[in-house]
Design goal:
67% of the residues lie in helices and 0% in strands. The protein is an all-alpha fold. It starts with 5 loop residues before the first helix and ends with a helix.
């Protein structure tokens, strides 16, 4: 994680925490602690938790589109993405 930007660190930390604990059970303070970043950096990039969630989803979409995610199938629309995402974070 050392070569990543603060934003990338927070996105990856949030993704990991969302996956293991769920979105609702993950607090911003946990994301900051895991990513070793600060609240000022968080508010600069995301403003609030909803902004972070949107960025995590955007990151996942890009990972899927680039073929880096082992989804096992092609996701063609929002319904399929939502189903895959829900199974991933629950």
């Amino acid at each position: 994680m050392e070569d990543m930007s603060s934003k990338e660190k927070m996105i990856l930390a949030a993704l990991d925490l969302f996956h293991s604990r769920g979105v609702n059970a993950t607090g911003i303070s946990e994301v900051l602690k895991r990513s070793k970043t600060g609240k000022g950096q968080f508010t600069h990039y995301f403003k609030n938790k909803d902004g972070l969630i949107r960025e995590v989803v955007s990151y996942l979409i890009e990972v899927i589109r680039s073929g880096q995610a082992g989804t096992g199938y092609d996701i063609k629309d929002w319904v399929e993405l939502e189903g895959w995402f829900e199974s991933y974070i629950v």
